[in-house]
């Protein structure tokens, strides 16, 4: 499988990169950095440090993309600690970002291999919206686009109605859903249903005592502590990593449905909300007809086993 990951690298984004880099049969061909979780340059450093931790320094190019959403004002949320890595204090990676802009790298790489490359978009969709606006043919040239974003029930993680990635740049998300890509969406709703590891699962990962399980333990420290404060128990959710797992091994998807997806760009209360209609009701919006497949459920045990294998390497 040939893969590109677009990421606002912090916390869970890193584990998705690791899963892609450490699963046999997957070639992570490029990483593109988008505005989102924390300071933009810090996100690039986090991606480079993750590549180094995987032992692939110099082998996975990292491209810098859009530093801001298309229209929205956005200050990084620092949900994963100020560095996005739970203060893991990782050594500065030897590899440096490429000179080419991420948007141009995406276009060049996708157009050079029509029908061969799949992409995981696990950040706000600014880079992809710019790329498909500059070169609309990438929508059909990309084999498949796996998007982490939105909610399937309107219960968001940033506002009551909106999930983070679509909330940060709803205009970009709306452009991407209109562009004609072959899209599967892994929502925040799915994250809550299938991506959480409980204390026993986390203990099993920690007990691997490999360099990658140690990396995981350090970088997931803040979300674990936040969960303990909020819910009284240690858990960790993995929205981006589950999206990557579904892309790598779609057999872990237990249920999915076709849908018509539109993103609210104007609402005072609902900005960033994802309307995910059953496809047959989408006839009112013909230009969006069947523009996505929504994952409704995934196998948490199989997902965990994929990460356990990856971190054992
Ligand atoms: C998304 O927001 C980010 O904080 C995570 O990396 C994930 O991509 C979840 O809403
Ligand atoms: Ca992310």
TrEMBL record:
InterPro entries: Inosine/uridine_hydrolase_dom, IUNH, Ribo_hydro-like. One of its GO terms (molecular function) is purine nucleosidase activity. Keywords: Glycosidase, Hydrolase. CDD domains: nuc_hydro_CeIAG (cd02649). GO terms for biological process: purine nucleoside catabolic process. GO terms for cellular component: cytosol. PANTHER family: INOSINE-URIDINE PREFERRING NUCLEOSIDE HYDROLASE, URIDINE NUCLEOSIDASE. This is Nucleoside hydrolase. It comes from Pseudooceanicola albus.
